[in-house]
From TrEMBL:
Organism per entry: Evansella caseinilytica
Gene3D superfamilies tied to this protein: Tetratricopeptide repeat domain
The entry's keywords: Repeat, TPR repeat
Protein name: Tetratricopeptide repeat-containing protein
Highest taxon in the source lineage: Bacteria
Spans of repeat TPR: 35-68, 103-136, 171-204
InterPro entries: CellSynth/LPSAsmb/PSIAsmb (IPR051012), TPR-like_helical_dom_sf (IPR011990), TPR_2 (IPR013105), TPR_rpt (IPR019734)
Amino acid sequence: MTDKNQLAVTMMKEGKLEEAAKLLHEAMEDNPGDAAAFINFGNLLAAVQEYEKALRFFDRALEITGESAPALYGKGNVLYHLEDYSEAIRAYQAAIASGFQETDVYYMLGMSFYLHGDLRRALPHLQYAADKNPLDVDAKFQYGLTLAQLEQIDDALAIFQAVIDIDNQHADAYFNLGVAYSYKNNLEQALAMFEAALEIQPDHLLSANGKTQVQSLLSKRGEEGK
C-alpha cells in the first residue's frame, strides 16, 4: 500500500471522507495498477451507500489482481446491501477460498444464506461466527433465530439465553424466548419472557400479541382445571 493509501485509510477511519477520496484519486492516477487504491475507494463509496459505484471499483481491483480477498469481501458486502444474496454468497465464498478468515465474512455469508431462504446452509456459518466471537450479540442472536426456525428449540433456547446473559436489554431475545417456551407449552415462562420484552420496549407489538395469546391460553387452562 502506498503512503497515500495508508493516509486515506486513516482519513476514512477519522470520518474525513472528502480528504480520503482526494488521496485515493491521486493514488489511482499515480499507479493505475495499484489494486489497494481501488479497494479502498470501493470501501469509501460503500460507506456512503454508493453501492453501484463501489461495485465497479471492486471489480476493477479484481481485474488487476485476478483474486483479491479484500476486494471479494467488499464486493460481497455491496451485493448484500443491494439484496443480491446469491451473488453475495459467491463473493464471500470466494473471499474465504482466497484466504480471508475474518469472523465477519462467516457472519455475512450466513446472513446471505438466511435472507436467501437457505436456513440449513446459513446455520453452520452463523454458528462459526458466534463461536469465534462469543460476545458478538448479533451473530449469536441470528444463530439462535435460525435454530428456532429450523425447530431446534432446545438449542435455540440456550442461545437466546446466552444473548440475554450478554445484553439483558435485548427485547427481541426475550420475545423469541417467549415464542420458544410457548412452543414447548411452558406458558408461564413464555408469559414472563413476553413481559420482560415489554418492560424493555413497551411498544414491542409482537411481544404484546404473544402476551395476550398466552394469557388467553392460561385462562382457558385455569377454567378447564376447575
